[in-house]
Design goal:
Helices cover about 65% and strands about 5% of the residues. The protein has about 450 residues and is mostly helical. Among the domains are: about 1-120, no CATH class; about 405-450, no CATH class. A three-stranded antiparallel sheet has the order 1-2-3. Strand 1 (about 30) and strand 2 form a beta hairpin. Helix 2 packs antiparallel against helix 3 (about 85-100), helix 9 packs antiparallel against helix 10 (about 205-215) and helix 13 runs antiparallel to helix 14 (about 285-300). It is elongated, with a radius of gyration of 26 Å.
Length: about 450
Amino acid sequence: MLCVLAAGLGFLAWARLSSAPVASIPSMRFFERSDGMPVAEVDAHELATFLTSVGVPPLALPPPPVEAAVARAMARAMEALVEAPTAASYGRFGQFFDALRMNEQARACFERAVALAPGEHRWRHTLGRHLATIGESAAAEAHFRRATELDPAYLPTRWRLARLCFQTDRGGEAESLLRGTLAAAEHPYPWAELAQLTLGRGQAAEARELLKTALERDPTYGRGHALMSQALTVLGERERAAAHARRGRYSIKSLDSIPDPIVRDGVRETDSVSYHRIAARSSAAGGAERIALWERICRADPANADDKIQLSNAYLGAGRTEEAIATLEVAMAQVPRGARFRLSRAQLALRLGDAAGALRYADEALALDAKTTAALGVKCMALVSLSRASEAVAPAERALELAPDNPQIYLFVGSVYERNGRVSEAAATYRRGLAIDPATPGLREALERVE
């Protein structure tokens, strides 16, 4: 039932910044939505007047209705801003715009907070976090670095800086930052991030050990279970991988974000949290549903190039090849020095039978990160497909140097030796793989084939 409850909230004194006029708190109309949810509409004209008076750009479009509890909390934040225009009051006000994805207004508030308290870690961190969300990586990194100088003990800032380094393909710097926090970290996040880095290099056994530590610290850590499932799949432990995948999918903490308490401060979680919970379910979704889920995630966070890899995979699974290629190429353009995007493009080319394209993209990935074992594997397979098997030996042996504890690599390298007629070396390689894990699928059969 529609029930209008509110009128104006009255006039409050305004402590001026420069020549700002006295501002009125905008009036709000509270009512129940058709589904019974209590919501509120803010008067658009009064809100524009208020925002202008406090130095924040007005909204281009009328604001949508928001949950009633959020509206009341926002009114309290506006009152606090009128009473004392401090860094804290601007920052608190900006958090509401951030949660509602009103980026221009959020940024203006956070920048004002930093200007009012340039030596305070909190708002440097918050501004960096917002800039990273909207894709301004360089500016975000500068604020994270300054925030780290101001408070070296606050680990989430260093973790966010590491995430930016990883996203801009500076894996070595990301790894150094993460390892530097392990001794003081109670949360499993840095172990999971390190595991993701090592998985990207094809070092599944090392990733497994890191994830064991993460899950010892928090057995309900959904992201840890999801990554453990990937590592165990690579290592051929399919039953255990499936068990971890189920735990990751249904965990309350599925795809946990960076723990970041100082930026929440009572504000309702942003929609991006629910998008990532949807993403955690995508592996169980059918083709069309999976595509719809990842399209929604990419629309919500267009600056995140990693999500586009997942969308491309969803398109490919549904046979929509051209869209899969186009999506990956957008991601590659967003992160021109991102080896993992070239690797994904190489894998896609190989899957589509384009061995020459796969070789070209694999070489591009290796030029950006020479330790990517998966790219070495794609290069080998492409060379074999192009009847250049002799050239595949060197990259195969390099992959083995990088991941000597991964039995699947031994199966792969042995097959390259076989292609080149080096049967005794192939047999020795298969035996070494079996010594690491006798249950690795395909290894024993390969050894029997060459003996």
